[in-house]
Amino acid sequence: MARRKKVKKSTIVKVIVIVGILVSLAAVGIIYAKRYVSKKFADTKQTYTSVQASVQDLSSRVSGTGSLTDSDTEDYEIPDNVDIDEVVVEVGDKVEKGQVLAKINTNSVLAAMYEIQSKMDAIDKQLQTASEQKAATTIKSQVKGRVKGIYVKKNSNVISTMTEKNALMILSLDGNMAVEIETNDLTAGKKVKVKSGKKTYNGAVKSVSDGKVKIVLTDNGPVLGADATVTSTDGKTTYGTGKLQVNSPLSIVAYAGKVSSVNVKLNQYVKKGKVLMKLTATSYTANYDKLIRDRADLAEELSDLLRIYNDGAILAQMSGTIKAVPKTDDSETTTSSSTSTSSAQSYYGYYGQSSSSTTTDTSTTKTNVFSICPDIKMTVEVSVDETDILSISKGQSADVTVDSLEKTVKGTITEIDKSGTTTDGTVGYTAEITIDKEDGMLSGMSCTVLIAVTERKNSIVIPVEALNNTGSSYFVYTTYDEETNTPGGMVEVKVGIQNDSFAQITEGLKEGDTVWYKEPEQNPFERYMSRSNGNGNNNRNTSRNRNGSNRPQGGYNGNNRPGGYTGTRSGGSGNGNRSSRRSSVI
Question: Residue 369's CB: how many other CB atoms inside 10 A?
Answer without folding.
Answer: 15
